[in-house]
TrEMBL record:
Residues 67-139 form the Polypeptide-transport-associated ShlB-type domain. Residues 1-19 form the signal peptide. The keyword Transmembrane applies. It comes from the Bacteria. InterPro entries: Hemolysn_activator_HlyB_C, Polypept-transport_assoc_ShlB, TPS_OM_transporter. Residues 26-53 are annotated as: Disordered. One of its GO terms (molecular function) is protein transmembrane transporter activity. It comes from Bordetella genomosp. 8. GO terms for cellular component: type V protein secretion system complex. This is ShlB-type family protein.
Length: 562
């Protein structure tokens, strides 16, 4: 009887695992994020005041007739463009105030061309014989002074500042890129102070009030698929002059069936222009409650191990937008094991993936909206240890129907709008496309926080699929101790997947959709609670009666938040 049951499971391994049970696709995709409260960092866009011209200001009403303009200090912009702004004033009776206004147009021209520290000034003079001297100061940074507690991060900040010291005159593009690169130094926050030059040569000083947090940590109580579990993460930030970050994340199993999840990554900057090396990996092990498999008398254990290495570079980086490219390779060993109850018989499917990936991520930030879009492609290789097999301890073996030399495309997008009266609208979507029969670790999955609030994690997966959600929220500022804001929200989501394997195509007709009402509670620094109740409105859930309300919750805490 037992051997017959094992044979039945071997025959329908893929179908049973994808019928009515949870935790499909890449299990790590289903893990809820440890969301951090949004804090407003001081903007790197800096403003300076034009030096006071008290002597000239006292003579603004004086009438003059300019006959000759002597413009000095122009190098970065063609001289003809600058002088053309003053030519219309020649041989006309004007006030000194009108002359100053026209001179300000030269400053505006420099700002429009991207020179934030450059300006034109009419100094105190006699205007004898109609001669007008206009001085253009092309500003640059001659020194970067780091104040506060930069700690071991100071060397990294100093090295990133070098382009600011080399460029004369300073451009807005360089200023914004360098300051944003500094904001990417792990554990570092700072407030910049920069004034327009007060020296004739255009030199000025940038002052950075820096705070360095060497160690940061956060944690939460989240649903990892088998129930609520603690999830902790700790980071070591810029402990050496390299400006590196080492991060460890792990779940705390409270029972024998709880999820075992451990992850780590290290990011090391290369050079001083944003190039970075990242090495990451994780171990995941869970025993999901899979009704389809349990009805056959088996217990299921899922284990996934991954390691990857990649390079990233910000091709575009300023105060409004960024475009980052990433190239990398990774290896995944995934195991799906089925143990027959009350016996020592087991059946196991192993898949070993070796792949390369490339990604572009574009982010824009504006006062009333923000956009985050990423496009990636991954290519598998049937070499370097890639393998696939089904084996057992009772003599059965086979080869699973998956493609190791797969190609898959992924697109993720999120658009947020700030509406009047503290309302907000967030639109999100994720999609994947592949013509191949993908290993489980490469499939896309949906459920719970991932476009399926009314369903358990990993409720549905496939070789290709799409998910989308729309959320309307309203922020209420509370301002009481320990609670700064409440944000109720309404959300609707949709997800659908498709399998390319012929034996799984009967499941392609199902899709997920749900409505949810929730609340976020935060102090905007140390904690964020996010909870909601959701109801399926499309395919029935695999949990409970399939149509009931589902409670979702994330409780996140942050140590020494910055």
């Amino acid at each position: 009887m037992h051997i017959g049951g094992v044979a039945l499971l071997a025959f329908g391994l893929c179908a049973a695992a994808h019928a009515d049970g949870p935790l499909r696709g890449n299990p790590v995709d289903a893990l809820p994020p440890l969301e951090k409260p949004r804090t407003q960092a001081p903007p790197p866009r800096l403003e300076g005041r034009t030096p006071e011209q008290s002597a000239v200001e006292a003579r603004l009403a004086q009438r003059i007739v300019p006959r000759h303009f002597d413009v000095i200090g122009v190098h970065a912009i063609p001289f003809a463009e600058v002088s053309a702004l003053l030519t219309p004033l020649a041989n006309k009776e004007i006030s000194v105030g009108e002359l100053v206004q026209q001179t300000d147009r030269i400053t505006a021209l420099y700002r429009a061309r991207g020179f934030p520290l450059s300006f034109a000034v009419v100094q105190n003079q006699s205007f004898a014989q109609g001669k007008v001297v206009v001085t253009v100061v092309e500003g640059f940074i001659s020194n970067v002074r780091v104040e506060g507690d930069a700690g071991t991060a100071k060397a990294r900040i100093d090295s990133l500042a070098q382009p600011l010291l080399r460029e004369k005159p300073l451009t807005a593009a360089t200023l914004e890129r360098v300051l944003n690169l500094m904001r990417m130094v792990p554990g570092v926050t700072f407030k910049p102070a920069l004034e327009l030059p007060r020296r004739a040569d255009g030199a000025t000083e940038l002052v950075l009030d820096v705070r360095h947090q060497a160690v940061s940590a956060n944690g939460g109580v989240v649903d990892l698929g088998t129930g609520m579990q603690p999830l902790l993460s700790a980071s070591a930030n810029s402990l050496t002059p390299l400006g590196e970050q080492t991060r460890l994340t792990g779940s705390i199993p409270l029972g024998t069936d709880d999820v075992r999840y451990f992850a780590g990554d290290i990011t090391i900057p290369i050079g001083h222009d944003g190039l970075g090396l990242k090495i990451d990996g994780f171990h995941y092990k869970a025993k999901p409650e899979d009704d389809a498999v349990e009805q056959l008398g088996f217990d299921r254990t899922v284990q996934t191990d991954r390691v990857g290495i990649g390079l990233s570079y910000p091709f575009l980086l300023d105060n409004r937008q960024s475009l980052t490219g990433t190239l990398g390779v990774y290896a995944v060993n995934a195991q799906d094991r089925y143990d027959l109850r009350h016996s020592d018989l087991w059946l196991r499917q192993d898949t070993r993936v070796r792949a390369a990936t490339a990604e572009l991520r574009y982010i824009t930030v504006a006062p009333a909206r923000s956009t985050d879009v990423s496009l990636s492609v991954s290519q598998g290789f049937d070499t370097l240890g890639a393998d696939k097999y089904i084996d057992s301890n009772y003599g059965y073996s086979s080869v699973p129907n998956v493609d190791l030399d797969f190609t898959r495309w992924n697109l993720n997008a999120k658009q947020s709008f700030v509406l009047p009266a503290q309302f907000g609208l967030t639109l999100a979507a994720a999609g994947q496309y592949s013509d191949d029969v993908l290993p489980t670790s490469e499939q896309i999955s949906f459920g719970s926080w991932r476009f399926g609030m009314g369903y358990p994690q990993g409720e549905q997966s496939g070789d290709k699929g799409v998910g989308a959600s729309a959320e309307v929220n309203r922020r209420f500022t509370v301002g009481i101790p320990m609670v700064s804001a409440l944000q109720p929200y309404l959300l609707i989501d949709y997800a659908r997947t498709w399998y390319n394997a012929a034996e799984l195509k009967p499941y392609n007709t199902q899709h997920l959709s749900s409505v949810a009402i929730g609340m976020r509670v935060t102090d905007d620094r140390y904690y964020l609670f996010d909870f909601n109740v959701a109801k399926p409105i499309a395919s029935a859930s695999s949990e409970g009666d399939g149509r009931g309300w589902r409670f979702n919750a994330n409780y996140s805490f942050y140590y020494n938040a910055i």
